Amino acid sequence: MGTRQRLQQLVELSPTIDSVIKLSKVVRDLGVFTDDVARLVSSCFFQLRRRRQVRKRVSRPVLKQLVHSFVVSGLDYCNGILAGLLAKSLAQLHRVQNAAARLVLRLRAHDHVTAALRELHWLPVKYRIQYKLCLLMHSVSTQRCPAYLSQLVQPVSNSTCRHGLRSSSSQFYAVPRTRTKLLFLLLFERAFSVAGPSAWNVLPTNLRCISDTPSFKRQLKPHLFTIAFDV
């Protein structure tokens, strides 16, 4: 962008490139390949195969720690960007977690894993994503986050059209709305400015009012665990 004269100067100064620059379907940022669930699934299953080779030589607590360090941690790393995934992609991540649970508890390939996840006290992937979003929103609510993150969301109390309403004093955050449909709507709903407030606003008031982060984490997981397994 610029004037015709300025653009002409740039053309004259630009070096000649004799290769073709191809577009990439995915972007890598902080070690994460965005919108490439298949790559993450493949990496996790590779690590599971490696852990399966030693499962008979280690105790269950050691095996659990190995699986958590090399597999589950991969599912958790930057998983906030996985908010709003299509059901098909989310199912692939659930298969990884189910395989990890079967390996730790030495279950057969077709054994149900709901009880196994409860025994291991592992939140399903869907709720692990919600857990991360709520932690990020808690850091926003307590002003312990970078400025760029807090600028993505807006408290309802700052909205002039909601001023004076009960929701404006309940630590709710505004969820942007759009009338756009199809693909853009799916991408819009995956943005932190939408996914973060959506996850935060459904938390009970007693959770949203906790200012101490360790206490918030201790109460958040049991809350999501109860929802996930209906206990």
- Strands of the biggest beta sheet: in what spatial order? 1-2
Instruction: Tell me the number of structural domains.
Output: 2
How would you sum up the global shape? Answer: flat
Mean pLDDT: 84
Radius of gyration: 22 Å
Q: First CA to last CA: what distance? A: 58 Å
Structural class: mainly alpha
Based on DSSP secondary structure assignment, what is the total number of beta strands? 2
Oligomer: single chain
| Low-confidence regions | none
Summarize the amount of helix as a percent range. 55-70%
Number of helices: 11
Q: Please trace the helix and strand order, writing H or E for each element.
A: HEEHHHHHHHHHH
Strand proportion, as a percent range, falls in under 5%
Described by strand count, sense and barrel closure, the largest sheet is: 2 strands, antiparallel
Structural summary, described in words:
The protein has 231 residues and is mainly α. It folds into two domains: 33-122, no CATH class; 128-229, no CATH class. It has helices at 4-13, 37-52, 60-76, 87-105, 114-120, 125-141, 147-150, 182-190, 192-201, 205-208, 213-229; strands at residues 27-29, 32-34. Strands 1-2 form a two-stranded antiparallel ribbon. β1 (27-29) and β2 (32-34) form a beta hairpin.
